[in-house]
Amino acid sequence: MAAPASSYSPLRILIAEDNEVNRRLALLLLNRLGYTADVVVNGREAVEAIRARPYDVVLMDCHMPELDGYAATGEIRAFTKDVVDRPRPRIIAVTAAAMSGDREKCLAAGMDDYVTKPVKADALRAALELATVPPPSVPTTATPEVETDSERELRETTDTLAAELGPDSVRELVDAYLADTPERLKEMAALAGGDDQVTLRRLAHSLKGTSTLFGLNRTGTVAATLEKLAAAGEKTEQVRMVQDLDRLFQSSCPLLQHRVRELIPA
Questions:
Q1: pTM, full prediction
Q2: I need a labelling partner for 162 at 20 to 30 A (CA). Which of 11, 87, 169, 171 fits?
Q3: Smallest Cα–Cα separation from 90: which of 134, 52, 48?
Q4: Long-range contacts of 77-84 (CB under 8 A, 24+ apart)
Q5: What residue spans of 109-166 are helical by DSSP H?
Q6: Quick one: 182 exposed, middle or buried, by C-beta within 10 A (0-12, 13-18, 19+)?
Q7: What single-letter DSSP state applies at residue 100?
Q8: Are strands 38-40 and 57-61 parallel, antiparallel or unpaired?
Q9: Which helix (H) or strand (E) is 31 found in, with range?
């Protein structure tokens, strides 16, 4: 098995790829390296995803329908150039082409790196290691960082779960949680502060249950509070709370992945 990426860095990764097999391969490689990712199927969706949510890395297929990777990169660079609260994503070109000048074409389009298909774990790891996320500078007026989930509570809860269901079942449940939660958070971000409070309440309730299943009790508490706000139609704090949930998820991903490796050694 490939070694995990550096310290299980909580990179927010977007895969832009129109081929199902290539998408699945990218997700599997990222999972082995300790990452999760969101997925879109064309360049237009990639641009819309970047507008909706900050990403640290985009694995950008160069040849896609709607908008190819080169044009999508141009639009992303134009959008993020003047947005001070949005990080400049590191865009890694992923292409089957290996002709002379292809790398230069990708860099000229605004991409930062280049890997060829079929993507190999070592090449992907090397590209991601260049996308380190510096510690955020927090101004004195900023809201303090949300308290993270307890590794001790996670360990105790997953020990009990493994005793009841077996380690393989715990791995299956964790994989499903890591795969499903980013999409649910994206839905919640779109609904926060809006009119459809019923759906937001349902999603918060669901996240509360799945998070506490693994002992992610801080996440469960925040989701429960958001559920109550949605039930009461109190919208003021909803956007911030979804952002808190997203940060909690990013910090809990490496804990869950490491825990699974402890329960099921390679």
A1: 0.49
A2: 11
A3: 134
A4: 77/110, 79/47, 79/50, 79/51, 80/50
A5: 121-129, 151-165
A6: buried
A7: T
A8: unpaired
A9: helix 20-32
Mind listing the pLDDT tens digit for each residue in 203-261? 999 999 999 999 999 999 999 999 999 999 999 889 999 999 999 999 999 999 998 89
Those residues with Cβ within 8 angstroms of residue 95's Cβ, 6 or more apart along the chain or in another chain: 61, 62, 63, 69, 102, 106, 114, 116, 117
Q: What order do you get walking across the sheet with 38-40 strand by strand? A: 38-40, 13-16, 57-61, 90-95, 113-116
Return d(Cα 24, Cα 66) in angstroms, integer.
21
Contact 130, 227 (CB under 8 A): no
Q: How many CB atoms lie within 10 A of CB 227?
A: 19
The fold of 151-263 is: Four Helix Bundle (Hemerythrin (Met), subunit A) (1.20.120)
Locate the domains of the chain by residue range: 6-129, 151-263
Domain 6-129: assigned CATH number:
3.40.50.2300
Q: Is 4 exposed, middle or buried (0-12, 13-18, 19+ CB in 10 A)?
A: middle
